[in-house]
Amino acid sequence: MVRWLSAKLGPTVTSRTIARNLLRLLTSCYVGPHRHQFVPSGNESFPLNRNIYQKRLVLGDQLSKAVLDCLMHVAHLYGEPVLTYQYLPYISYLVSPSSGGRLNSRKEAALLAAVSVMQRIIVYLSDTTLMDILPKINQEVLLPVLGFLTSPITSFPSGSQARIALCVKSCNLIALICLRIGTEMVQQHLNETLQMFFSPFSLLQQAHDQGLNSEILSCSEPLLVELRCLDGTVLTVDLSVLEELEKVYNPEMAYATYIPFSFLIGDVAMRRIVPNHELLWKMTTAYQESMTPNTLQLSNHDPGFSSPLSSTPYTTHEAENQSGTFGSVLVGNRIQVPDDIQPDRSSSTALIAGADIFPPGYDDNTLKQDLPRSAHMLCGNWLAYWQYEIGVSQREAHFHFHQIKLQSFVGHSGSIKSVMPLNGEDFFLSGSKDKTVRLWPLYNYGDGMREIEARFTYTEHRKSVFYVGQLEAVQNIVSCDGAVHVWDQFTGKTLSTYEPADSKTPITAVATMPSPYCSVTFGSADSVLRFIDHRKPGLQHEFKLASNMNAGLIRYLTVSPSGRSVVAGYSSGFIVLLDTRTGLILRGWPAHEGDILHMKAAEGNIVVSSSSDHSLTVWKELEQKPVHQYKSVSDPIHAFDLYGHEIVTGTVANKIGIYSLLDPSTRPNSTTKLSSENFRGTLTSLAVLPTKRLLLLGAENGIIRLLA
């Protein structure tokens, strides 16, 4: 369901609603000490002796897998910008230092979630993008995570197990980045990161040398003491936190991290980057001896055997052109070792540590995968619009118009008379002077310059089509050219037609009833309002409006959202309100001094009308005076639509205006002139896509534009 919605809703709605909430859900997958336990594997005797970049799963990873899969599916649909512009900033937010420097269970889970999703992101980043944002990843993700992990005064609510899980995940992430970028880039960008990761080993050694007691005290308050480091600096440490650190940064962790990192980036580079490499090497060899007691016996009987206590981890040769993914040693997603440059196999440590770097059946795709090229991938104007939208709060109630052209719909040969989005906003209908109704897709394609063709064309009309609408209850389309046509939106088959009995009284206005009603109402030149149901023969109802006055022709009809009233606007500026339940005229009043050009009904018994007298007026159905009245200085407003509590208007001068529906003080009115680059021709029709916050604009040249 989530994947289907991600494709249906488009990039902006998906990112604002689905992806944003999936990212929030990730943290919940790691809340609780039981979710920090490692998933049992086949090698429980040596739990850390495994591929350094291979993920060691915790129970929380099993819960988060479905969430991460959905997040990556969104990235597959809309491209790499989703990873870099939405996911990465949220990860930075998750790992940002907390107020007071303390961790709660939620922040603890957020750190694990951030590292987990970062591991997935790194795999899908291209080489160019990874190098471009590597400083940002290092400063905003890696270093803050290591700040919590290595802090001697910040305890984890779930104890040492959560810290161990975070340490293993962080090690996997750093190793994955090292494999992607190569030795040269590691030395250039990750010096501080590696130094911070290995620094607790020295801290614990110095605490041990100074005889600090790291046992957890019975008192609940932390016991802070000062620790004098070898470089003369003084650190404040919490003894209970030191006890946590000792359980994490032990000889086993030194063996599981130092040897593989040395193998990845070279022993010479490792010694240059990590100041405490001698201590790490001693801890590594001590751990190896404790796990392989026969090593010393073998060295006594075999003169040619080199003891790990007297040898370096392995012999490495630094090549000038060694540069990971971007050089000759690490090619693509694999490490390619030339025949004349091999590790010293006489060292047992090198043999054991090196064997875990690429286990049998290793898949290159675990290091790097290319995102598939999707037709909906964000680029150009779509990317610019999407970048703005993901930064907008979900509570933002205002419509913002930026004149970003996203799509052009070409196919009509006559002026566009009506545009109407269908439910779901993935398709829309257009009626034109060329006697056709066309169905268009609203999915994002290309960079904003692409011209889209219609999916279907309805050609049964004989005159200019001035109205298109949808019967939501039965999912049928209603269109009118003087005769009302009801047809199936999926097959295009005509279901029924209604033509006026007298050609001297043509149909001049049409409206569809909201769900659950299935009726169509239309007004004719004789000032009669009629109702039909295409499933039944003949007329349902017939009401005479404005019988005692010269109101003129019915220019426009609109139905209240509840379906309880119909509002008719006349060429004289007169408006009549009809109760659909009783057929009684509730009110009639002279609303304008010119023709009614457009009308809309809104919740709360609100009616909005525009006229050729340049006025835009907001009415309460049964109140005598208007709620608000706006005056267009240059041109009358001939098309408008509603967005929440705002009115989005258009004029023949190609000006888009935004007005407040209820309270003008909440936002000043604004007017934007459409540029010829984004919209050519004269604006004839307008519709708002409220969920996607987009505008459909029809022109007299037959072209429809989608603008943000």
Annotation keywords:
Methylamine Dehydrogenase, Chain H, five-stranded mixed beta sheet, 15 helices, 33 strands, WD40_rpt, alpha+beta, cytoplasm, WD repeat-containing protein 81, four-stranded antiparallel beta sheet, WD40/YVTN_repeat-like_dom_sf, single chain, cytoplasmic vesicle, 708 residues
What does this structure look like?
By secondary structure, the chain is of the alpha+beta class. The chain folds into two domains: 2-366, no CATH class; 397-707, Methylamine Dehydrogenase, Chain H, CATH 2.130.10.10. Helices cover 32% and strands 24% of the residues. It contains 15 helices and 33 strands. The strands form nine sheets. It has a five-stranded mixed sheet. Strands 6-7-8-10 form a four-stranded antiparallel sheet, with no helix packed on it. It is elongated, with a radius of gyration of 35 Å. It is a peripheral membrane protein. Keywords: Cytoplasm, Cytoplasmic vesicle, Endosome, Lysosome, Membrane, Mitochondrion, Repeat, Transit peptide, WD repeat. WD repeats lie at residues 409-440. Its main location: cytoplasm. This is WD repeat-containing protein 81.
